[in-house]
Amino acid sequence: MGFFPALISWLPFLLIALLQLFKKKRQAKNELNHLPPSPPKLPIIGNLHQLGPLPHSSIRQLSQKYGPVLLLKLGRIPVVFVSSAEAARQVMKVNDLASCSRPPLAGIGKLTYNHLDLGFSPYGDYWRQIRKICVLELFSVKRVKSFRFVREEEVASLMNSLSQLSCSATPLNLTSKIFTLTGSIIFRVAFGKCFEESDDFDRERFYELIHDAETVAARFSAEECFPGFGWILDKLNGHNERVERVFKALDKFFQGVIDYHLKPGRTKQHDDIIDVMLGIEKEQIEQGHVWLTKTHIKAVLLNIFLGGVDTSALVVNWAMAELCRKPELMKKSTKRSSKHCRKQRKTPMLISREVMSHFKLNGYNIYPKTMIQINAWAIARDPKYWENPEEFCPERFIDNNIDFKGQDFEFLPFGAGRRGCPGIYMGTVTSELLLANLLYCFDWKLPDGMKEEDVDMEEQGGHCLTLMKKTPLVLVPIEYIPS
């Protein structure tokens, strides 16, 4: 009889304990689901319909509504987009180790021989070894300076060509000239041959291959977004054929230049990047622990091919396009201003990161296997950090202490953290030398009948690693004669 009264007396305490347990479970569930904000999704496709032809611009618009840390589902793939300097700092500095891997995407995996390169390989022992070689042997200040004569010879050759063309005062495709120049420099520095000597590409095919490779590197396959049936879409839209075609063309070219370097009795005036890597492979063979093979070399050459030609050319091309719309700025261009003009980097989003361990970003949970993309384009146009951000104003960098090498996150042309670009010095000296010579040696005019506001500044749409101008820049060079 005394059991039931005792049970009744303990019942409130039991109810309180159960309520506390339920509350803790509910809090744990809420904590688990505390993900970044996301726009409304559609079945199957998720948020894919909200990305327009310029994804970086679409993400910027969404972030202005939902916040600088945004979660989108691209089919089945969760991607966190970061559009503020503070959040970028949290990713690439505070939580750099937790988020510095790369997603194993099929397209770029094919081009890099199963991620044997530097730029797209996952974080680990191999990545550390290949980065050490690139930083100390391939892109060191000493190595880049050793190629100074190549840069100066190629730029001088272009200036001579432009000088002859200026006599007729006819418009020329400056975009083509700029890309040919950077292509010639990379061919000589990396491959040990002049661009004109290559039997693998004509000029048009060369540009097309670069663009196709960058498109493959930047986009998901339909199978990755829609497992089980996406392969049908890949087959219909020609994605798989494009990947295979680009891979075969690049592999044939890389194998050809390696075979050229291995020819007995080959004469050379200077070690290029392939010579350096073949030398490292030879040393490893002699020491009995070989891990750098010809396949690894070809994977690294892909990074140089993509990162070396396009990016430097785009910087100069966009800078010249902006300057020709501001004749007064063009006239007063000095060495100092030309240095800052090339800081107008046209990089939309940094290469995707993959999260390796859980961390919090702006209070939101970021879980392993989540992809993160830094919208560097949006950050560089944030009025919170920049006055009149949409205006081309290279003077803003004069006496400005913002570091563009990854220490300050308001401006990230080369990324930051462990995944920062190791080719910073090579890229900056090339673009600066070319831009300075174009500004010093010539006055540039628009074709007859064309006004400054007529210059087309539209960006080329599509998923690509870089941001190209939709139409070529056509200008008239007038050789500058000092008074």
Automatic annotation (TrEMBL):
Membrane spanning residue stretches: 6-22, 300-320
Domain of life: Eukaryota
Keywords per UniProt: Heme, Iron, Membrane, Metal-binding, Monooxygenase, Oxidoreductase, Transmembrane, Transmembrane helix
Pfam families: p450
Annotated source species: Corchorus capsularis
Family: Belongs to the cytochrome P450 family.
PROSITE patterns: CYTOCHROME_P450
Annotated protein name in UniProt: Cytochrome P450
MF term (GO), any: iron ion binding
Cofactor(s) essential for the protein: heme
InterPro entries per the UniProt record, alphabetical: Cyt_P450, Cyt_P450_CS, Cyt_P450_E_grp-I, Cyt_P450_sf
Binding site for heme: C421
Phylogenetic classification of the source organism: Eukaryota, Viridiplantae, Streptophyta, Embryophyta, Tracheophyta
Transmembrane helix as UniProt keyword: yes
Record bears the keyword Transmembrane helix: yes
CDD domains (UniProt xref): CYP71-like
